Amino acid sequence: MDFDQNNSLSGPGPQEGPEELRPEAVQPIPAGPDMTRPQVNKLKKRSGWRIFWGIILALSILANIVLFLMVIAMGTFFVIGQEGVFTEEVIRDGPRTTKIAVVRLQGIIDDDQARDVYRQLKRARQDDRVKGIILRVNSPGGTVSGSDRIYNEIQHKTDKPVVAFMQGVAASGGYYASVACDKIVAEPTTITGSVGVIAGYMVLQEFLEEKLGIQPVIVKSGKKKDWPSSFRVPSEEEKQYVYEKLITPAYERFLAVVAEGRQSVLTLDDIRPLADGSIYGAKEAQDEKLIDKIGYLDDAIDQVKSLAEIEKAQVVEYRKPFSFTDLLEAQGRSIPKIDKRTLFELRTPELLYLWTMWD
Fold first, then answer.
1. What whole-number distance in Å separates Cα of residue 320 and Cα of residue 118?
2. How many CB atoms lie under 10 A from the CB of residue 357?
3. Parent domain of 155
4. Residue 110: burial class (beta carbons within 10 Å; 0-12, 13-18, 19+)
5. Which residues are catalytic, by number?
């Protein structure tokens, strides 16, 4: 057999075929020192862009991680807040090294309100830059214990000058807290006074027996163990018992507190005729020496400066950050619940330094 013929049938050899497929037709890309300057610049340019976009990608990832953590932190703060943390809002400009702190006493005085005021006062006491305090009062009063705790924090634990600034209503427990301060300034439209005590509870006897068919059964160790009881209408003896055991001691305590706080201008005998629960406008309260001055916030600030012996100061007000928990609690309070605790509160007398017109 003719091998040349077979070779010709097996296809082109290595040196044959289309020109573009021949090895000598493939031109290798120069590398290293054999590269031309434009080729080197082109490679450098490509490498530079790769590095640039790599940096951008890394920064983008890092920024997203930081943003994610910030969102989580802000969400957590918004949902649960920070217990006991108050922010400072500047309401009058001045040197930051000398400050006057405004502490808010707003609304009904209860355990939560007393705790908030305590935390604000504590912050002001611990801040060496704070030279004086203004207690900004707009409250009809509230519980006896809450009012007394605020009074004690100011009167016996605060060594910086404190001025009470009354706005709107500063009655009963609101006045009780105010007399702990060195001076009292009230706006011209303020309602104050209402020195006295009130206690009340609900009698559920008719509702339980006639509406629900429930007959309460009480077993007690002594005659007065359940005095007063929400399961029956109180007798005159029971009312007198509550008056002597609850109302009178709390009332005498109120008188003693006012006498201590206003001792420079009033005696206990001066106070007693005024302490029949009456309310007083600002002008009448000043005439009766229940307050020192009628004015506005700037007048209270000037009073603090005088007591602290300073000429200029930055005035800051403590604010409690809002949290989602506050919203939920507010909604929860708007929905009445009848449980064991609610029933207990309804039938247990609550002793209050409160001006009830507020309700």
1. 13
2. 11
3. 87-358
4. middle
5. 172, 225
Count of all residues that appear for the chain in the document: 359
- Is the Cα torsion angle 127, 130, 132, 134 positive or negative in sign? negative
Q: Please give the Cα distance from 267 to 61 (Å, whole number).
A: 72
pLDDT band at 326, cuts 50/70/90? low
160-176: per-residue pLDDT in tens? 999 999 999 999 999 99
Domain count, the chain: 1
Secondary structure of 228-241 in HEC code, one letter for each residue: CCCCCCCCHHHHHH
Distance CA 193, CA 189 (A): 13
- How far apart CA 94 and CA 90 sit, in angstroms, is 9
Q: Identify the three-state secondary structure at position 195.
A: coil
Q: What does the pLDDT look like over 93-145, one tens digit per residue?
A: 999 999 999 999 999 999 999 999 999 999 999 999 999 999 999 999 999 99
CB 279 within 8 A of CB 355: yes
Return the closest-CA partner of residue 198 out of 84, 350, 4.
Answer: 350
The answer to whether residue 164 is domain-embedded is yes
Domain with 169 in it: what CATH number? 3.90.226.10
**In this structure, is residue 13 part of a structural domain?**
no
Give the C-alpha separation, 32 to 30, whole Å. Answer: 7
